[in-house]
Amino acid sequence: QVQLQESGPGQVKPSQTLSLTCTVSGGSLTTSSYSWSWIRQPPGKGLEWMGSIRFDGRSQYSPALKSRTSISRDTSKNQFSLQLSSVTPEDTAVYYCRGLPYWGKGTQVTVSS
């Protein structure tokens, strides 16, 4: 059974960089043909795919967020990370990591001064 766990600050100030880490257990980031993603859900809105990192280390990003988003990984720790720069209150959301069909439980991030 693959398990994913998000971690990171629950509050970030406007203009700062949001950083989250997803720790994967029971699975490997380098499993062939597999991708690992970050998804978010702002309050009252639907799920938004932010980007993914593939088994070979290549990343893909939502066009809407590409200029502010970076996804990286540490295969020695079986972790992948999200950085979202220049955050605004509109980036307030529950952030999920995902490795289909498995999801983390999500972590609330609030952007507020």
Mean pLDDT: 97
Number of helices: 0
Gross geometry = globular
Count of strand segments: 11
Q: Which runs of at least 5 residues are low in confidence (pLDDT < 50)?
A: none
End-to-end gap: 39 Å
Please trace the helix and strand order, writing H or E for each element: EEEEEEEEEEE
User: Which range best describes the helical content: under 10%, 10-25%, 25-40%, 40-55%, 55-70% or over 70%?
Assistant: under 10%
Strand content: over 45%
Q: Would you give an account of this structure?
A:
The protein contains no helices and 11 strands. It is mainly beta and 113 residues long. The strands form 2 sheets. Strands 2, 4, 5, 6, 9, 10 and 11 form a 7-stranded mixed β-sheet that branches. A hairpin with a 4-residue loop joins strand 5 and strand 6.
Quick structural summary:
With 113 residues, the protein is mostly beta strands.
List keywords for this structure.
0% helix; 113 residues; mainly beta; globular; 11 strands; four-stranded antiparallel sheet; 51% strand
Helices and strands in order:
Elements: E1 3-7, E2 11-12, E3 18-25, E4 35-41, E5 48-54, E6 59-61, E7 69-74, E8 79-84, E9 93-99, E10 102-103, E11 107-111
Parallel strand pairs: 2-11
Antiparallel strand pairs: 1-3, 3-8, 4-5, 4-9, 5-6, 7-8, 9-10, 9-11
